[in-house]
Design a protein that fits this description.
mainly alpha, 6 helices, globular
Length: 146
């Protein structure tokens, strides 16, 4: 579980909104007209967790495809304490290639969210600005071996 949290933290900036593209209203408690304190606090954290998980999964899948291995193999290497850059280099792929593909994919998702009206142009610009650094951190971050 620790590796998921570490990966999610490094990839969090890859989310479409870099702070909440798909904000949903807090769940209403059963039969209540307003959200309870418990659900309004618990729901957004759960939403962030699921969003981070989706972003992390997409980054793993994209990175594995770029490297030429399965996502399961990449996760195994990451759990062994290697960085994505080390795995890419071991398979003859330049780490910058992985970073470029992550940025390309993230930019496409940001553009789609902006076009769909889910985020403002200002938020899209900020996300695109942060994306290269976040992708680089994700690729170069070395995790603790499990």
């Amino acid at each position: 579980m620790n590796i998921k949290k570490a990966l999610a933290g490094t990839v969090a900036a890859l989310t479409l909104g870099v702070g909440g593209v798909a904000l949903a209203a807090p769940a209403l408690s059963a039969g209540a007209a307003t959200p309870s304190a418990e659900t309004s606090k618990a729901k957004p954290e759960g939403q962030r967790h699921h969003r981070r998980h989706r972003v992390l999964k997409a980054a793993i899948v994209s990175s594995a495809k770029t490297i030429g291995i399965t996502p399961k193999e990449l996760v195994g290497e990451l759990k062994a304490g290697k960085s994505v850059a080390e795995v890419a280099t071991a398979h003859g792929v330049a780490p910058q290639t992985v970073i470029n593909n992550l940025v390309k994919g993230g930019t496409a998702r940001i553009d789609a969210a902006e076009k769909a009206g889910k985020i403002t142009a200002e938020r899209a610009a900020k996300a695109k600005e942060r994306l290269p650094k976040a992708a680089e951190r994700f690729v170069n971050h070395k995790r603790q071996a499990k």
